[in-house]
Amino acid sequence: MVASRFQEQDSEQNINLNLKFELPESLSKVLIMLLSQATIAPAQAESTVETTSTDFVSNSTPPAPVAENPPTAPVQEELQHPQFSSLLDLYCEHLEERDQLKGVKRTSIQETKTGLRKFDSWASSHSDNTRTASPGVAKTLGFSILDLIASDPLIMRKFVHWVMVDDGKSVDTARKSVVATFKVLNWLTDEGKYTGRKPEKPSTAEMQKLTGAGTNDGLAETVTLPEMLAIRAATHIATWPELGNLPPSAYWDFAIDVCWTFGPRSQDWFSCDAEKSGLLWEDVCFDSKCPAPQMKGFEHPHGWLWINIGKSGTRRILLPMSSRIRFHIDQWRGVDPDRVVPLNTGNQSHGKQWRKLLKAAKVDSRIRLSLGQGNPSLRKAASDYWEDIGDDVANYVAGRTVKSVKGKNYSRLPRRVAKHIEGVPFDLESQG
After folding, report:
1. pLDDT digit string (tens) for 143-177?
2. Is the Cβ–Cβ distance between 309 and 104 less than 8 Å?
3. Residue 94 C-alpha from the chain's centroid
4. Residue 359: how many CB atoms within 10 A of its CB?
5. Is residue 20 packed enough to be buried (19+ CB in 10 Å), middle (13-18) or exposed (0-12)?
6. Buried (b) or exposed (e) across 85-98, using 16+ Cβ within 10 A?
7. Please, which residues have CB within 8 angstroms of residue 411's CB and are 6 or more apart in sequence?
8. What are phi and psi of 5, to 5 degrees?
9. What is the β-pairing status of strands 315-320 and 284-285?
């Protein structure tokens, strides 16, 4: 008889198990072998659990076959809007005739189209920089302006910021663009063609804060003569517009001198708007004799200009040319048969180029050519000069309505402008 002893220790329960028994030697060996296998099994099971989280399993069981197409995480549903790329096209095709039949004024329809054209241009150039809810839709299926709108609830605020801060336009321009955009968006919603969430709509008060107009009652600041001369000296860096054989600086010199001399709405002279032509050659009189019947016999050596006021162009004023303005007019002969300065329509380069000039001149970046909406403007500086001559004269040359009865007499206002136009300061000595 052989005495055998077997000891097992459970690591988790810390229990010692002592077995003492006497068996025949053959049976003792068998029992010892069975008990040994029983103690090894838990350790093997634990090893299996620990290694299943890795790329292989250490036990003898072969791994389960990997599926050819493993399941993936749920993908965000892509927007299913029609691939419209232009709100202006939608308006012209579906809404313009309806507005005409409803008796909407032609000028209002033009303003709507101008606002939509501005939004289309901005949206197409910013589509790659705007986070979309359906990645790759615009690039894979073609640009969808509706997907772009639905992707960002702040998109209208970003657009307004660009219109007013980057492009230098007024609160009124930004507001009309927003109204036009929502006009088409509301129609698309009613037709079931737009199912996304509408973007936030900035209020007029919020727009005014972008220009500071809400803090100074909309009164524009003036521009000093040294500031104007610094901008004028920087025009040689201009790379836009390229018209005819003239350098880009020819346009900017002309625009600065006009706005400094008369303080008009720049669109009445130089228009990037397809609905407005700006100054036409048919409105330029090179003869010294005044073309107005009320001023028969009056002459001015440098000639005359008829300026169409406002977008409708139904009102116009007669202005004498200074020697400086006549020089510019002569430069532009032959560039275009109809328009004196044929700027391209719908071009964002105007605002970008103007900002480059201000930066090169190291002057206030808020300065505007004409409508400042609370910002410094050349229009305000011109008004300061003409107000010293008379309030009615200042209103007249700027294209504003002349309220005084005396001021409505053509025989007086153009004569007074002609008398003082050469006195507009263009150098520091003349100002002193």
Report:
1. 578 888 888 888 998 898 888 877 767 788 888 99
2. no
3. 25
4. 12
5. exposed
6. bbbbebbeeebbee
7. 294, 295, 298
8. -130, 135
9. unpaired
